[in-house]
Write a structure and sequence with these properties.
The chain has 245 residues and is α+β, with helices and mostly antiparallel strands. It has two domains: 70 residues, no CATH class; 172 residues, 3-Layer(aba) Sandwich (Glutaredoxin), CATH 3.40.30. Helix content is 62%, strand content 11%. It has a five-stranded mixed beta sheet with strand order 1-3-2-4-5, sandwiched between helices. A hairpin with a 2-residue loop joins strand 4 and strand 5. The N terminus is likely disordered.
């Protein structure tokens, strides 16, 4: 009976301080039996506990992400080596870490394009973050070299083209043909890929991603929120509006 009363008190008011060590072995066993019986009779309590734990962990993650964003603000938003698209003077900035060989990045490309096309007040920054092997690295080097030698318009077309039209292995020949199809001279871009500054940019992005606790692609920073992984356009739009509001 004593164990049953203790179990009832604990479930009614979990904030009550209780010293289990003061109980006898028999009382602890009885208490365990009562708690087990209660949970079996009321399994929805476990669902409530799980939901509350998820909320707490999500809040802690969001707080940690906001701190990471604040600590790395300059490298995220003021990096002169990164492509800036959309509206450079937009009131909300979307930063994307991407890999051209990533299937979810390909899927997200359509969503991001739709978002920027429908909202003319978004500043969009790309962080080249190749993580899926040598082809990923070569593609990023080509895109960065395009930005450095041919300018942001050429970069935007090449970056989009990697998702929309490029297929097959990535080699100097396929990259040259790809660039030519886009109406962009590939020669200075191919030559520019060997500039040590290109690898420095990629290494800096990898270092930034590590500090931001980003290990996969795509990853987005919008306002004080970080989104790891693909999300549909509607969710991206809602996050933008939250950052704006």
């Amino acid at each position: 009976m004593k164990a049953a009363l203790v179990a009832l008190a604990l479930t009614a008011n979990p904030a009550i301080a209780f010293d289990v060590t003061a109980m006898t072995d028999a009382e602890r066993a009885a208490l365990g039996t009562e708690i087990r019986a209660y949970l079996l009779a009321n399994p929805e309590v476990l669902i409530e506990v799980s939901q509350e734990l998820d909320k707490k962990q999500a809040a802690q993650q969001a707080q940690g992400d906001a701190q990471l964003i604040a600590a790395n603000e300059a490298d995220l938003y003021s990096d002169a080596a990164s492509f800036i698209g959309g509206n450079p003077d937009g009131d909300v900035t979307v930063v994307e870490f991407l890999d051209y060989r990533c299937g979810y990045c390909r899927k997200a490309h359509a969503e991001v394009t739709s978002l920027i096309g429908s909202d003319r007040n978004i500043r969009y920054i790309v962080k080249e973050f190749p993580i899926l092997g040598e082809d990923s690295l070569t593609a990023s080097k080509f895109a960065i070299a395009a930005l450095r030698t041919a300018g942001p318009e050429a970069y935007a077309r090449i970056s989009a083209g990697f998702y929309e039209s490029f297929r097959g292995d990535i080699t100097p020949d396929t990259l040259g043909a790809f660039s030519t199809r886009l109406g962009i001279d590939p020669k200075p871009i191919l030559a520019g890929m060997d500039d040590p500054e290109v690898m420095k940019i990629i290494e800096a992005n990898h270092d930034l991603a590590s500090r931001m606790q980003i290990s996969g692609t795509p990853a987005f920073i919008i306002g004080d929120q970080m989104v790891r992984g693909y999300v549909p356009a509607a969710q991206l739009k809602a996050i933008v509006e939250d950052a704006r509001g």
